[in-house]
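forwarding from the other thread:

> can someone predict this with potassium ion?

sure thing
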Amino acid sequence: MQPLYRSQQTKPIDAAAADYLQIDSYQLMQRAALAVYRHLPDCETLLVVTGPGNNGGDGWVLAELARQDHKKVLVWALQKPATLSGDAAKAAEDYQGEVVYAAPAEPDQFDVVVDALFGTGLSRAPGGLYQDAIEYINQCQAKVLSVDIPSGLVGDTGVAYIPTVQADKTVAILNMMPGHITADGRDYCGELILDRLAVPERVYADIDPSAYVLKQAMLNLLKQARKHNSHKGSYGRLLVAGGQHGMLGAVLLCGTAALVSGAGLIQLITTQEQAPWVPVHRPELMALGFTGSEHQIHIPPADVLILGMGLGSSQWSKALWQQLMTANIPTVLDADGLNLLADCDEAADSIAVMTPHPKEAARLLNCAVKDIQADRIKAVETLAKRYQCVVVLKGSGTIISDGEENFICPYGSADLATAGTGDVLAGMIGGLMAQGFSALQSAQMAVVWHALTADHCALGRCLTASDLIRHLPEVLI
Ligand SMILES: NC(=O)C1=CN([C@@H]2O[C@H](COP(=O)(O)OP(=O)(O)OC[C@H]3O[C@@H](n4cnc5c(N)ncnc54)[C@H](O)[C@@H]3O)[C@@H](O)[C@H]2O)[C@@H](O)CC1
Ligand SMILES: [K+]
C-alpha cells in the first residue's frame, strides 16, 4: 500500500532519495522541477509564482526549464532572490528570464500558472502578499499546476487555510501526504500525480509512514471468499440492532447491506411494533421485537452484532444498548450507539469496530467537530487506542485506524453525503466480519467497496442509500 508521510518525515525522505541517487540537494531540486515540468499542461505562456522556501526553489528551476524550452515565461517572486537562502537562492540565481515582484496585469495572458508558493513548509495561514497572490491565482482563467501540494493546504492534515490555491493538477514529489487525500485535500489538489523521481519505495523503509492509501485490489479478497462446499451457516450469524420507533429504515438498510455483502443469517432487533414489518420489506431478514426496559431480551447466538443505527436515546434505546453491549458479541458500533457510549463511563470490551462521523467522534473525544477535522489522523488514532478497537472516521478521505496503523480511502465522492449511507457502511463491515474477515480487513474492504460504488455510479448528485446497495455487486464483477 502507498505510504503517506507527514511534513517532518519529508526531510529524511529527501536525504535518503539524494543519497540513493548520489546527487546533492540542489540536483534533487532540479530533478523535482523537471518531473513537475513534464506534467505541465500544453501551453505557450506561463506564470510561475514563487514563495520563500524550496517549493519556490522548484518554481525557479521549472521557470528556467520552460524558458530553455522556448516558452514565454514570467516569474512572480513573492520573495526577492537576495533574501532567499540555500537551494532556493541558487535556483533563483540560475534563472535567466523575466521576473516581477508584483501581481502581473492582465492575469488572463497566461495559459498556465505554476503555484510554487508553499510546499511542506507551510506553517500558518497565508496572509498579506501571499494571501493576495493565492487569490490572484484562483481568479486566473489559466490552468493551475501546484508544485508538491496546493499552497495553503496543510500536508499533515488536509486542512485548507483560507485562501488555498485551487489546483487543476498537483504533482507530489517523492512522497504523498495525508493532506493530499483527506479532509479538504481532494477539493484542492485537482488531478493528483505522484512522481517518485525513480527512487524505489524501499529507500524509505526506515521511515515510519503516518498512514497508507487503501487500494481497490483489497476487494480481490472478497472475490475469492466463497467455497463451493459451503452453506449459509458458513457465512456467519449477524444481529443488527437499532431502529427506534420511526427509524426502521436505518436497520433495514444496514441489514440489507450486510446481506448483499454476503453474511449468512441476519436478524434485526427493533421495536415490537416494527418487527413484523421487516420481512415485508426484505423477506431474507428475520426480526425480533424489543419492548423496553422490563424486557430481558433472549439474544440469539451471533458471531457479530451491529448496533446503533436509528437507535435513538430514549429509555428503550438505552435498555437495548445496555443489554446488547454486555452480551459479549464482537460489535460494530455506529450512530446513536456511539452517542450512548459517549454518555457512559463503562468499559466496552466487545467493540470490534466503531464508525463515527466527525460529530460522533467529537462527542466521544469531548471536543468540537473542528478539532476532529483539524487533525483527522490524530483523532482516529486516539479513539482506536482509547477503545482498543478499529475506528473508521468517515468523511472525505475516510480514515481507518487500529491504533497501530492508519489507512486512508482515496475513493468516493460527495454523492455519498446523504441519509442512510452510513447505515449501509456499518452493514457491510458487520457483514464481512460475520464471514470471518478480521475487524480491520472488514473495515478496509467495506470502506473501499462503498466508495468505489459511488465512483462507479458517478452521478454527480446524491446517490440514495438504497441505490448504493443495489449497485454494490457491480463493483465486484
Ligand atoms: N529539501 C529537498 O531536498 C527538496 C525539497 N523540495 C521542495 O521543497 C519544499 C519544501 O521546502 P521548504 O521546507 O523550504 O518549505 P516551503 O517551500 O514550503 O516554505 C517554507 C518557507 O515558507 C515560510 N512560511 C511558511 N508558512 C508561511 C506563511 N503562511 N506565510 C509566509 N511564509 C511562510 C517558512 O518560514 C519558510 O521560510 C517541498 O514542498 C518541495 O516542493 C523539492 O525541491 C525536492 C527536494
Ligand atoms: K505549492
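The chain is about 35% helix and 15% strand. thats all i got for now
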